[in-house]
């Protein structure tokens, strides 16, 4: 049976079947080929989308904007200070207003419940550009990048090192379970994913041939990994006061040469970005001054090494987001 996601929301990967995810990945790969070959694809000319950002962004915002323009769409960007949403107008009212004007709505913000509520009222597809719980568009880019590198997804060992409770880890666990990868969350128990989500992921993995493992052991977690993945130690929306504890808990889980050397020889390093691999950022410099560390979740050596595919991954945000917009609006 053919796959059709027209008119659907894209709120979390739990809502999508492996066949639907496969379709989005194949569509993204096709769009990437077209873009590379200069083949125009203004398939959605005459439609309009709006991007609501309650948190900052480089990749996600630019991906939606470029993808939208490539598809011939009109694109409106609303930053945290420039809409009434939440402050003077409820989510439900905002959704009903925007749904009258736009063909699709992207939302980046805090609680997953907000994006779910927007979707319930908008009457047009709503896309999750990151919430505290999930980051589903990132996952499509990650899977496309891994597939480009290894030629397949099923059976690969992917290890997430560091904060195993955040949006990136939650989403990676689910997408790996759906697509048949062996997922390892490698971090301190205090930062492991919620048990209910792990149970759900285990059930999904049982059907796909994948698996889910949680470990505090870096040696065990990185052994034979095909992909070592990490994310920042303090996510957007978390208070600055947690830095000290995170640094203490997560320093043993830094992706460094030793961790990479324990993985397969062909292993790659991935990161959703942005990354604190040096002190060339305001926060990186502040942390260096306060805590005396110049690299956090990944060393500069690994980040800049040949094994690092983080910029392919970043580029693929655009191609995969284009696939989501196209497939749901066409
Ligand atoms: N990876 C990611 O979502 O990046 P931005 O925060 O820059 O959008
Ligand atoms: N976990 C990170 C992901 C950034 C893309 C955050 O939420 O800040």
Automatic annotation (TrEMBL):
Compartments where located: Cytoplasm
Binding site for carbamoyl phosphate: 57-60, 84, 108, 135-138, 272-273, 317
Binding site for L-ornithine: 167, 231, 235-236
The protein's Enzyme Commission number: 2.1.3.3
Catalytic function, reaction form: carbamoyl phosphate + L-ornithine = L-citrulline + phosphate + H(+)
This protein's UniProt keywords: Cytoplasm, Transferase
Domain annotation Aspartate/ornithine carbamoyltransferase Asp/Orn-binding: ranges: 154-327
GO biological process: one example: citrulline biosynthetic process
GO cellular component terms attached to this protein's record: cytoplasm
Limits of the Aspartate/ornithine carbamoyltransferase carbamoyl-P binding domain: 8-148
Keyword Transferase: yes
GO molecular function, one term: amino acid binding
Function in brief: Reversibly catalyzes the transfer of the carbamoyl group from carbamoyl phosphate (CP) to the N(epsilon) atom of ornithine (ORN) to produce L-citrulline.
Family from the record: Belongs to the aspartate/ornithine carbamoyltransferase superfamily. OTCase family.
Protein name: Ornithine carbamoyltransferase
């Amino acid at each position: 049976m053919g796959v059709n996601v027209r008119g659907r929301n894209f709120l979390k990967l739990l809502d999508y079947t492996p066949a639907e995810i496969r379709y989005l990945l194949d569509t993204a790969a096709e769009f990437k080929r077209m873009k590379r070959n200069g083949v125009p694809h203004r398939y959605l000319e005459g439609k309009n989308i709006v991007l609501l950002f309650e948190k900052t962004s480089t990749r996600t915002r630019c991906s939606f904007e470029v993808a939208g323009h490539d598809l011939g769409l009109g694109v409106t960007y609303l930053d945290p200070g420039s809409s009434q949403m939440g402050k003077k107008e409820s989510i439900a009212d905002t959704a009903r207003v925007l749904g009258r004007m736009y063909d699709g709505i992207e939302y980046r913000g805090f609680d997953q419940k907000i994006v779910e509520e927007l979707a319930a009222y908008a009457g047009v597809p709503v896309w999750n550009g990151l919430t505290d719980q999930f980051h589903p568009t990132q996952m499509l880019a990650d899977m496309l990048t891994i597939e480009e590198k290894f030629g397949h997804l099923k059976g690969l060992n992917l290890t997430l090192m560091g904060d195993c409770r955040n949006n990136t880890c939650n989403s990676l666990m689910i997408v790996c379970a759906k697509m048949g990868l062996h997922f390892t969350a490698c971090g301190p128990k205090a930062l492991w994913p919620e048990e209910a989500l792990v149970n759900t992921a285990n059930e999904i993995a049982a059907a796909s041939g994948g698996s889910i493992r949680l470990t505090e052991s870096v040696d065990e977690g990185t052994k034979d990994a095909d992909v070592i993945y990490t994310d920042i130690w303090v996510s957007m929306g978390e208070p600055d006061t947690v830095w000290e504890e995170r640094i203490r808990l997560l320093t043993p889980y830094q992706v460094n040469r030793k961790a990479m050397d324990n993985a397969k020889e062909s292993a790659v390093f991935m990161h959703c970005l942005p990354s604190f691999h040096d002190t060339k950022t305001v926060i990186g410099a502040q942390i260096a001054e306060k805590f005396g560390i110049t690299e956090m979740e990944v060393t500069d050596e690994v980040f800049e090494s040949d094994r690092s595919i983080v910029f392919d991954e970043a580029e693929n945000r655009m191609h995969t987001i284009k696939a989501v917009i196209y497939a749901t609006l066409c």
